[in-house]
Amino acid sequence: MGAQATDGVYGQRVKQAMVSDVVAVSPTDTLSEALTLMVENKVSALPVTDSRDRCLGVISASDLLGLTKDLGDELNELSHTGGLAKDLLVEHLSESDLLTEPVQDLMTEQVVNIGPEDTLAKAASLMVRNRIHRLAVVDGSNHVLGVLSTMDILRAFSEEVFEQMVSIRRDLHQHPELSRRESRTLDQICKHLDRLGIQYRKGVAGNGVVAEIPGRNPQLPKIALRADIDALPIQEETGLPFTSSSDGVMHACGHDGHTSMLLGAAECIVAEANLPASVRLLFQPAEETGDGATAMIAEGALEDVGLIFGGHLDRHYPTGDIVITDGAVNASSDRFQIDIAGQGGHGARPHETIDAVVVGSLLVMAIQTIVSREINPAHPSVISVGRFNAGTASNVIAGAAQLTGTIRSQDQEVRVHLQQSLQRIAASVGQLHGARMEVTIDEGTPPVINPPEIADLARLAARRVVAEEHVIPMPTANMGGEDFGRYLEHVPGCYVRIGARFEDRDNYPAHSSKFDFNEQALGIGAAYYHSLALSAGRHLAEKHSL
After folding, report:
1. I want to staple 260 with a disulfide (CB 3.0 to 4.6 A). Which of 23, 168, 199, 241 is the partner?
2. Same-domain check for residues 416 and 349
3. Torsion (CA) 167, 172, 173, 176 in degrees, nearest 10
4. One of 74, 152, 272, 287 is an active-site residue; which one?
5. 230 included as an active-site residue
6. Domain shared by 321 and 339, yes or no
7. pLDDT digits (tens, 9 = 90+) for 424-446
């Protein structure tokens, strides 16, 4: 692994990625002038240089935040996002005398620098180790030549790996495979893992792959990163040049992107010379049928895993946003079937029948009272009847009917309540009208619930990839099912949304024939996974004192 740290994007020299047009301040400039430069240039720190451009230290928004409470909220925003409204700045500066002091009184003199010939791998390690987002690039005489940020590294990553991720994604999109039939997809994943020199076990849970990137401390629990790989039975109508070549099968939920994103992350993670903990890559089949995760777990996918992370491309959010929420982020998803046995007969003699259509219709309406009258409105829940089959002819009163639908909730106790209420109401409606009712409930995926402390860890990793303002919570409950919850029943973890919205064209819902996503999100997602591998690894090392 260490030998590969000089290959690929992380083998590039700092001078290839740094920004040479440096905005700096002198030690005698005022703090007010420094803050104004930060705001105008949308940066959260500035190098402090002398008249010969030699680096003397760094002044940051965090330094200013510690100086005065008058600028508290706004400076805190600046320290995270690099942005602050100018009118607020002017207002606060006019009220504060503290910012008239010289920069040299507050600057940090012991700064972490890097040379132009050093590798991006070294730069990334320095940033992670020191928990900083920028490095001053200096020569042997300590002259400032430029600045390197995490976003500069991401751009370098994008240039080298992004096109490859797009190529993988488009190949998978053009050759989609349904759940439990992902054989070609499996072969493509293995081909790219072979290229990276990553060991793997294939054929897990049918067409799944479990790969492993060893860390420096084998005693630590492993970190798992998961991507789903299957497609949907939908006829594609996107008109894309790489549209599905398989009739009636389409990647309409972004799993082609999830797979390529994890492969892109693997390319960066395998190049890490100082990876804290081993990283396990889970390429999971059969997510759409809801049983892929269970099968992966049964075949050892979570063995020795301490934390697991996953994500979903989402056109509801702007590209560049990473959506991380404490608590429930996906609902449970259970299927039900209700068979109604009445008494059929002639349409002219309804008094001789027990009309299954009428009984079924009354049942559909009665079901609506469960969520609206039995469940606390603070607990999002849905019972949907998706299919109602009955009858054979217009002049025949149906003696049988069948209803099918789904039950969704983000709380396990509420989930049980919904199931029991459905059975109770079905039995009552049947008894009221003399029909026999048979209710079958097929328990599907559990809710996906992020523990707050692991969500915080995910946010930390995300903030090293995108600005604070782009790490946001989910504004409304997502009632879709996701079998990632199966993993969280065994180990703690976090499931996030990766913004993938188009700003210049229409966005279509997942599971629709015109679904597509902004491929620029692939770079964000891959960089997030890479950051997670480092942050989560350090978290485990601290937790286990190793």
Report:
1. 168
2. yes
3. 170
4. 287
5. yes
6. no
7. 999 999 999 999 999 999 999 99
